[in-house]
Every structure is written in C-alpha cells, then in structure tokens.
Amino acid sequence: MSQSGAxxxxxxxxxxxxxxxxxxxxxxDQRLKEGPQKAMSPEQREQVLQEWHPDYKADKKRAVAxxxxxxxxxxxxxxDLLEAYPVVDPRSINLASPDREVQVLILGxxxxxxxxxxFAHQEGIPTQDILMVSKLRHGDCNSIMAQGGIQAADxxxxxxxxxxxxVLGGGHxxxxxxxxxxxxxxxPLMIDWHEKLGALYDxxxxxxLEAHGGGTSRMxxxxxxxxxxxxxxxxxxxxxxxVGIPVIEFAPAVELLLDEDGHAAGAVLTNLETDEYMVVxxxxxxxxxxxxxxxxxxxxxxxxxxxxxxDGLIMAYRAGARVIDMxxxxxxxxxxxxxxxxxxxxxTEKLRNQGAExxxxxxxxxxxxxxxxxxxxxxxxxxxxxxNNGVSTPSGIRxxxxxxxxxxxxxxxxxxxxxxxxxxxxxxxxxIDITIEPxxxxxxxxxxxxxxxxxxxxxxxxxxLFAGGEVAGGVHGKNRLMGNSLLDYNVFGRRAGISAAxxxxxxxxxxPTLKHIEAFCADLKxxxxxxxxxxxxxxxxxxxxxxxERQLKTLx
Amino acid sequence: xxxxKLMQIFIMGKAYNxxxxxxxxxxxxxxxxxxxRGAGCRSGFCGACGTVYRKEGDYRLEFALAxxxxxxxxxxxxxxxxxxxxxxxxxxxxxxAGENVLLxxxxxxxxxxSCNTCTKACPQDIEVMDYVQAALxxxxxxxxxxxxxxxxxxxCSMRCPADIKHYHFAQMARRLYAVxxxxxxxxxxxxxxxxxxxxxxxxxxxxxxxxxxxxxxxxAQRVIETEGEAS
Lengths: 556, 231
Ligand SMILES: Cc1cc2nc3c(=O)[nH]c(=O)nc-3n(C[C@H](O)[C@H](O)[C@H](O)COP(=O)(O)OP(=O)(O)OC[C@H]3O[C@@H](n4cnc5c(N)ncnc54)[C@H](O)[C@@H]3O)c2cc1C
Ligand code: SF4
Ligand code: SF4
Ligand code: FES
What we know:
Distance between the termini of chain B: 55 Å
Number of helices of chain A: 16
Number of domains of chain A: 2
CATH class of the largest domain in chain A: Alpha Beta
Largest interface: A-B, 96 and 93 residues
Strand content of chain A: 15-25%
Oligomer: heterodimer
Mean pLDDT of chain A: 94
Order of helices and strands of chain B: EEHEEEHHHHHHHHH
CATH topology of the largest domain in chain A: FAD/NAD(P)-binding domain
Structural class of chain A: alpha/beta
Shape of chain B: flat
Largest sheet of chain A: 7 strands, mixed
Radius of gyration of chain B: 25 Å
CATH architecture of the largest domain in chain B: Orthogonal Bundle
Low-confidence stretches of chain B: none
Strand content of chain B: 5-15%
CATH class of the largest domain in chain B: Mainly Alpha
Helix content of chain A: 25-40%
Shape of chain A: globular
Helix content of chain B: 25-40%
CATH architecture of the largest domain in chain A: 3-Layer(bba) Sandwich
Bound molecules: flavin-adenine dinucleotide, iron/sulfur cluster, FE2/S2 (inorganic) cluster
CATH superfamily of the largest domain in chain A: FAD/NAD(P)-binding domain
C-alpha cells in the first residue's frame, strides 16, 4: 500500500465541514444519555415515504409496452431495457449443433449460482453435467460485498413466525406468503449448512453474536465481522472448486433458448475476450444473475458490483417470464457521501445496529436509526432537501452524519475496529478515522426488490427455467430488510438447484430455438418502439466524462 | 468539470491526463478504458483489481486495489487481474487437523525466507508473513484470525520469492479451523429438530391465513427485543 507522497490525497475532512463536526461532537454525550429517537408511527412513515422517497415520484416511471408484464409501471431505466432489441441476431446463430450440452446450466457466478450448483450436484447430477457461466470472475458479485449479516430465527426467544411477520411488515404486506414461509423456515438450515462448510460466524463464548437489523423484532442477524458476504461467498466458492463443478468466467449469457415445447433449453453466451458466441444446450437452466444497481435509477450512485445490469431479468422477460414488484427500488439509507472517490459505496446498516445514529448538520438526531430502509432513506432525504439541515461537501453533494464514534462509546474502545473492520479500512484509506470522526452519508441505490416471478420451488413460468437470488421477485415484496437477501440467495439458490436437478432427470430439452426472440422483436415493432436500444447491456460504460457525471449526479 | 485541473499518469507506459481526486479505476476509465477484467465489486471486497504501480522518480513497485487507491500525478500503472496460482483440492471432512495439513497440501510454506514482501504487497494491511509463520507451526486459529480480512487478490502470491499460495492455504485453514474448533451453538440444532418435527408450522399457517388488517395489527403488536436480553 502506498503510504503518502506527492500528488493529491485526501486529508480527511475539509475545513468547510469541520464546524459541523464540532457540533456533532458537542451533542454526542447528551444524545448518548438520552438514547435514540422513537420509531415513527405507521402514519408518519407513510407520510415521509409519500413526500420524499424516490419511488413515489410518478414521473420517474412508465408502463412497459410489451411482454408478460405489459402495463405495469417501472422506472424508466428498467423499461428502457425491457423494451430494447436483442444484441444477437437470432438468424446469425447456428443452433443445430450446440457447442456444449449439459443437464443443468447455471447462469451467474455469485451466491445463488454457487449454491444452486452445489445442491444440483448433491441431488445427483454429476459435476461434468453441470455448467456455471459468469460474466465476471466466479465470486465478483453482490454476494461478496455484503457486510452486515444474514437473518435466521434460531434463538429460543425467536421463531419462524416472528421472522415472517417482520419480513411481511417490512415489505408492506406485498410479499408472496409462500416464498416468505420458505425463507424463514429454511433460515436455520442454511446457517447449519454454512457451519458444516466451515464458515466462521461471529461467536462469543460459543454462542452467536446476534444483532438487530432495520425492522427486526428479534436479534437474529448473524455476522462474520462486516465481511459476512465475503466469508460466505469465499467458503461456498471454495467448495464449488473442491467438488469440481466446471465454471466459465467472462462468458455472460446474452439470450435464453427455448425448445419447440416452450421449455427452457439453455442459453447463448458471449466470450467477452474473443467476442465469440457459444451455444449451450441444457435440460434445465437456473437464472442467478443478480440485480440491477448499475442501471443507476434516477441517477443515484450504487453499492452494487460492476456486473449488476439486470441481464437475467431482460432475458427471462423476452422468453416469457413475468416480472413483479419492479416498481419499487431499494435505496440504502447510508451510502458514502464523502469523499467523492467512493461516493455511493455502502456504509453498512451494522454501523447503526451497533449504535451509530444519523445526525444533521447542527448535531441533532432526527430519526430512529433502524427504521425499515425505505423510511430511513426518505427521512434522510427530507432532512437534507426538505428541512435543509444537510451538510454540503465541496463537490456540492449533501449528506447527514452517521455518528460512528458512538459505537465505541457504547460498547467499549476497539469495538468498531473489531466488528466493522471493512468499514474502518474503507475510510482509513481516505485518511478518515471513523472511530474518532463521524461519516457523511446519503441514500444510494442498493437492491432490486422485485424481479422474475417464482414459486416456492424456485420455478418460473417457463418450464425448465428456475431462478433464485436478487434476480427473482416476490420474497421481499416492495421492500427488503437487511440480512434477508443473503438468506434469500441461499434458500432459493438451494431450491433452484434441487428443482433444476429433478427436472433435468426427467426431461431432456429438444432442439433449441430463438423463435421467441423473433416474436418479441415483432411485438416491439408493432408497439412502435424504435430499434435504437439493445439489451442486455452486460457492462456499464464509464469511459471519459461519464465517470465524473456518475460521481456528481445526485437528487438535486 | 472543464476547469478541473488535470494531471498526467501512465497506463502501461502511455501518457494520459486525468482529474485529481478520483480512484485509479475511475482514472483508467476516464482515460478511455472499459474494463472487462480488472473490475468486480468496485468497493474493495472482491480482489479483482490488483494493481502495480511506480511513482515518478521512485524505483520501487507498490501495490494497491484500483477501486480504492487514489490516483496520483506521475503514477505508472498496470493491472494484475489474474493470478495463475494452483490450489489444492480437498474434502473438508477428510482432513485431519492434528497433522500439519497445511504443509502437506502446500509444502512451499516451508520455503518461506521471511522477507516480508507479502505483507508489504497486501492492500488489506494483513500481516501476511505472520500467518505464513503460524501455518508453519500448524496454528490454525492464528492463521484464521490473521488472514480473516483476505480478499484473495493474489498480490502476495505474485510477489513471493518462495512461490507460496498464501490465500489458498489460508482459506483451507479457516474452514478447517471453523469445523474443528468453532463448534455450532446448541440452540441451532434445537431449532433444526423443532423445524423437522413441524412444531412451528401451526403458528406460521395462522399468519399465512390472516387478512391485511389482521396482519397490520399483528405487526403493530410486535414486542421489540431490547439489547441485553440477548442470550
Ligand atoms: C454492498 C452490498 C452490501 C450488502 N449487504 C447485505 C447484507 O448485509 N445482508 C444481506 O442479506 N444482503 C446484503 N446485500 C444484498 C445481497 O448481497 C445480494 O442481494 C445477494 O448476495 C444477491 O445474490 P445473487 O447470487 O442473487 O447475485 P450476485 O451475488 O450479484 O451474483 C450475480 C452473478 O451473476 C453474474 N451475471 C450477471 N449477468 C450475467 C449474465 N448475463 N450471464 C452470466 N452471469 C451474469 C454476475 O457477474 C454475478 O456473478 C448487499 C449487497 C451489496 C451490493
Ligand atoms: S493476503 Fe494476499 S491475497 Fe489476501 S488480501 Fe492480502 S495480498 Fe491479497
Ligand atoms: S513473500 Fe514469501 S518468502 Fe517472503 S515472507 Fe512472504 S511468504 Fe515468506
Ligand atoms: S474491484 Fe473488487 S476489490 Fe477492487
């Protein structure tokens, strides 16, 4: 690591922000004594959401004009892709002699994909009959970035029912009850599986260190420092490598294949380095391509990995799958607002569940720290743009303080560095010590709440196509709680792997076709949509000035 | 941004002008690169963006994550997006933690010359050499503790004169330590058997049958556990 040197480096906070930091310090003892603000009533929550949450702005959405979810309103950025033309010309691909034939094809290289691969194998599919393909490297994904933790109702004072009601209330009762039941019932099972694989969860005296998350009624957040996602992903990936499941990296799927019966029959891949297409025929296909953060909905920066461009959603939609709850987007309340170099990166909710509270420019607390995410985000936006109590950075971005030194004040010196090592390191790299100084935050685009419709066995509407993880919808309804998507990718990755294996044992795909793509293009044409956009976009383009625009675009 | 001061950097020897105050990754994109390899999480968690650089007027090579390190005037940059490091395949349950399994699977550990190059290369500030030493002693707990923040970027292994595959053996060590020395809490097994017996089904079914009003009421009546009650 470079230590110091010539050139420009951040020297912690600029003088223009220091006055406000002094105010935060001046009120800290009093705030610690008084404890956090009270949680909002349902009416107060509704009001702040209506007035300040980005999802509630009608002009930022439109109804999609074609396909299985025709008429449903979604963000323009999503509709733009659902209504785009394919990248591949269906007639230019030779489908008669596939390059590879497998029983189970898994699209994705993240958590859900890896779990699906292991369970498809456990269900009896030999390793050479499984193929995982990923856009980036195996493990470059949202799953590896998760910090805070994973929920599972395993303590005596907790129950699947308590978990269930938390999930439903958090999701504004829009979740699919069958999926929530699967989620909460399988929680302890998945934690047990991780234990058997050798994942290192935080323990004190042999017991799990379990904490609250936004919207939980019981402390059921399991963590591995603030590297929870990394610990799970690297252990699961290590096991995929031990078992010997073939993985092709830098080979994203660009289109799904269907056979003459309308069953899933594999995918067309593209080799990102040689630009060659590759046709993989498969009896069962698992969609585990993750979410859409890199679409930068409403210009927000994002916490997501480089490959989160909604490819799977687009491909499945063209093949006839319904997408649900795509009208709601999860903004994480606390993305980095300063320094600009790491704008939008995640300041984990665990900072708040360990005691840090949001504080405005005058050092006043203004919101209960652990409201559900949409409510907490809306309250922070209101504080900055409604009440004008935000702190402005030199590049004109507004934010509020997350008073991180409170963590050590509450739990003892050294706690933050131990339990939140990744967070400490992130700011430390920019010469800010968050055990001493607060962190400036503002909401950031975080999670695709909705997605491809599935049932409790991870089946989509297309026979032979299964989906799990962030690409799928229904589990979280219109708002996900922290710790439930790591659980989601495990529970539904597993179910997708098992269902795909069972299906593949009983069905073999017939000759694959791309007729559905030709039909979809015809629909686009008759809806009057011009052929000036193609999807999936595979990789976002930040070349030239785009990189600066991305950093400067904010709500204002 | 037109009045923004630009500075000169060199990407694989070629000069480009980029703004100050951005990361190496953003600077390369500003210069016109679109990453295929060399970018993953863009947040310091995946290890895809290992970067080697030299500063103007300095002879030493330095190591960083392109997504985290700020660009500086006169940097000479290149990326190491792939580490051709072999790993040993194993069956976790068949490993014997009593023997020095790490040495058996990764005999090169014994060739460590204590040069500390690995530690200097690590963008996570991990005491890499210390965990190699712990591995030599067969101390799984110490290896796990010291290596825990490893993002498996491979920079240490690219630099090691003894060709040790640090991050691979450390992964194996952590998993083995977890299953042998960090046992699963009892209450998890208790809950698992309750679930197998279906004890919680009835309560869940009741909730699943509730209408919206009933659910809202039930949600409002939740008693939130307070800190300190945790067992
Ligand atoms: C910064 C951050 C912090 C988070 N913290 C938490 C937390 O504390 N707790 C929690 O529960 N959740 C958290 N989440 C959410 C959670 O990590 C993700 O929702 C979840 O891991 C998604 O898993 P997945 O397997 O569905 O997707 P991913 O892990 O994103 O995997 C998707 C994979 O598909 C690949 N892919 C994409 N397109 C294609 C294509 N066309 N062809 C082939 N492959 C493709 C991608 O490259 C990637 O490998 C966090 C997310 C982020 C970004
Ligand atoms: S120990 Fe090695 S592989 Fe791990 S983070 Fe440090 S340099 Fe990278
Ligand atoms: S670089 Fe290699 S030889 Fe040098 S201290 Fe590290 S492990 Fe030992
Ligand atoms: S891109 Fe993942 S660590 Fe830099």
